[in-house]
Write a structure and sequence with these properties.
There is one protein chain. Helix content is about 85%, strand content about 0%. Helix 5 (about 300-310) crosses helix 6 (about 320-330). It is flat, with a radius of gyration of 64 Å. The protein is an all-alpha fold and about 350 residues long. The protein has a domain at about 1-115. The protein is built from 7 helices and 2 strands. Strands 1-2 form a two-stranded parallel ribbon. The longest helix is centred in the middle third of the chain and has 202 residues, at about 35-235. The protein starts with a helix and ends with a helix.
Length: about 350
């Protein structure tokens, strides 16, 4: 099929080359002929062009036929390859069957050898059984001797048991004596405990008396402080002193005795009208605090450092949380507080 295709392609190439040569000759003749001849040659050229187009269509048909033939060849080759693969698989399967047959034959021979060995072993076992029966008789004689020895050992064991029971009775008597001694010691300790309880009760009475004295002293101190606050208020506002000592606002002038300036930030709860009124009523000076100012209170900086370091921990319960806070609090240095206050 491929040789025929090559022959057809060669013939087509020859025809196309001849047509090209004839076309070239026609072009050369057109340059030499007159107008009438040129018209005749044009008709001839159109005929030739029709012939050429027909040959080209025939050539395309031949090429399509060759392509289909090539496809058939390819499909046949593929089938041939698949058949060859199937043949190889069949041959391989046959070889495997032959190998299995040889292996089975070898196994049969090995089994026959094992059977002969088993027969030999059976004869040997019969001989051993006879020997075992003789040994069994000897063992029975030895067993009788062992029974007699066991009887003697049991008698000795009973004697030793009696001795051990006597030793146990003696140890029991000594244990009872020790228990009596321990009971006497316990009674002595109980007596000491009762005496200690009496001492504790006396100390408790003394403690209650001391607490009572402490309470009376504290009340006396509060009265003295109240009188001192009244005296201070009299020095600050003589008009209220003239109105009478009983009319003084003790809570209002309580803080005059302490000369201080109160500092706080601009939190909503601290800048409320009620808070400012309370400070004015009690005559407390509050430090002016601008908005968006850094914290001057070092405790705030400490809480900030602690909060940032706690973000890296993952406590699972309250105890782990408390331990983490204590550990981080102990690791904060004064320099860290100083740096945080300057940021």
């Amino acid at each position: 099929m491929s040789r025929r295709q090559s022959e057809l392609e060669g013939r087509l190439d020859d025809m196309l080359s001849r047509i090209a040569m004839e076309t070239q000759e026609i072009k050369e003749l057109e340059q030499q002929l007159t107008d009438g001849q040129i018209l005749a040659n044009e008709v001839l050229q159109r005929d030739l062009e029709g012939i050429i187009s027909g040959l080209q269509e025939y050539l395309r048909g031949l090429r399509d036929q060759a392509r289909r033939s090539q496809q058939q060849v390819d499909s046949l080759q593929a089938e041939n390859q698949s058949l060859q693969l199937h043949l190889e698989d069949s041959q391989r399967h046959c070889r495997q069957l032959e190998d299995r047959a040889r292996t089975h034959t070898q196994d049969m021979s090995v089994q026959q050898e094992e059977l002969s060995v088993l027969r030999t072993e059976a004869h040997a076992l019969r001989d051993r059984q006879v020997e075992s029966s003789r040994q069994q008789e000897e063992l029975e004689v030895e067993l009788q001797q062992l029974r007699e020895e066991l009887a003697r050992q049991v008698t000795l064991g009973q004697l030793e048991r009696g001795a051990l029971l006597a030793a146990v009775d003696k140890e029991k008597q000594s244990t009872e004596i020790r228990e009596c001694q321990l009971q006497a010691t316990i009674d002595t300790l109980q007596d000491e405990k009762s005496s200690l309880q009496q001492i504790t009760l006396r100390l408790q009475a003394q403690l209650d008396q001391t607490r009572t004295q402490y309470t009376e002293t504290r009340d006396h101190l509060d009265q003295t402080r109240l009188q001192l606050d009244r005296f201070t208020a009299a020095m600050l506002d003589p008009q209220e002193v003239q109105s009478g000592p009983d009319d003084l606002d003790e809570d209002k002038y309580r803080y005059h005795y302490y000369n201080f300036i109160f500092q706080q930030d601009l939190a909503p709860a601290q800048t409320a009208r009620s808070t400012k009124t309370w400070f004015d009523v009690h005559a407390i000076t509050v430090l002016d605090w601008p908005a968006n100012s850094p914290d001057l209170n070092p405790t705030e900086n400490l809480w900030g450092i602690l909060k940032r370091k706690m973000r890296g921990t993952r406590p699972n319960n309250k105890e782990e949380l408390t331990a983490s806070i204590k550990e981080i609090w102990a690791s904060i240095t004064p320099r860290q507080c100083h740096v945080a206050s300057r940021q």
